[in-house]
TrEMBL record:
Source organism: Pteropus vampyrus
Name under which the protein is recorded: Adenylate cyclase type 10-like
GO cellular component: cytoplasm
InterPro entries: Nucleotide_cyclase
Keywords: ATP-binding, Lyase, Nucleotide-binding
GO molecular function: adenylate cyclase activity; ATP binding
PROSITE patterns attached to this UniProt entry: PROKAR_LIPOPROTEIN
Gene it is expressed from: LOC111736144
Lineage, highest ranks first: Eukaryota, Metazoa, Chordata, Craniata, Vertebrata
Amino acid sequence: MVGAVARHEYTVIGPKVSLVARMITAYPGLVSCDEVTYLRSMLPTYNFKKLPGKMMKNISNPGKMYEFLGHRRCVMFGKRHLAREKNVNHLLLDREKELEAFRMAQQGCLHQKKGQAVLYEGGRGYGKSQLLAEINFLGQKEGHRVLPLTLKEADSKQYFYAIQTLMAIFFEIDSCPACYRQEYLHKQLHGMVEEPLHCLFNDLFFVKVMKAVAF
Ligand SMILES: Nc1ncnc2c1ncn2[C@@H]1O[C@H](COP(=O)(O)OP(=O)(O)O)[C@@H](O)[C@H]1O
Ligand SMILES: [Mg+2]
């Protein structure tokens, strides 16, 4: 800190400042950051692009450098995760009416083969997650396959996000590497959908079509 009492000036000094000065010169016009910043930012990797290494004066090893691309959203289906598992020591109180609505829908679906949806609405702490954990438990107990999915408000901005994610979980292509997605999809659709029509599902599941390698 230098200067008179009435006027203070603050100067940041140190190796990071020198590095930043070199980065600005090496990557003009870009918002660049070093690897520590990249890793500690807690932002998704698709918000960044790796930059080519550059010689920097007086800095022997600047490490990996990244360009910050801004807060982009990657259009993709979601991950499977159930927020909560049923806790057997925790009784579910006063939810008969809500569970009955689920049972009715389940009956309609299983016996009348009609698609059903039950919507539970309530503010924070109302007991939604607890109820869903119970429904998940009941469904599995009866031998049904349950596809749990948590939606965030931001997901509403992507058209068909929920149905795409549910179908991706159903076909188990959400958990497989992108390069195997096409193969998985073929296997799952086999016998259900004619093979020439399989490609119609590529867009829905963000299938990256493998390029043929020439030898
Ligand atoms: N029917 C219930 N019986 C007993 N405890 C409940 C019930 N519903 C919710 N709780 C408890 O209340 C708290 C908040 O419920 P939670 O399901 O997390 O709410 P939400 O998901 O709607 O925000 C949790 O600790 C949960 O265990
Ligand atoms: Mg909740």
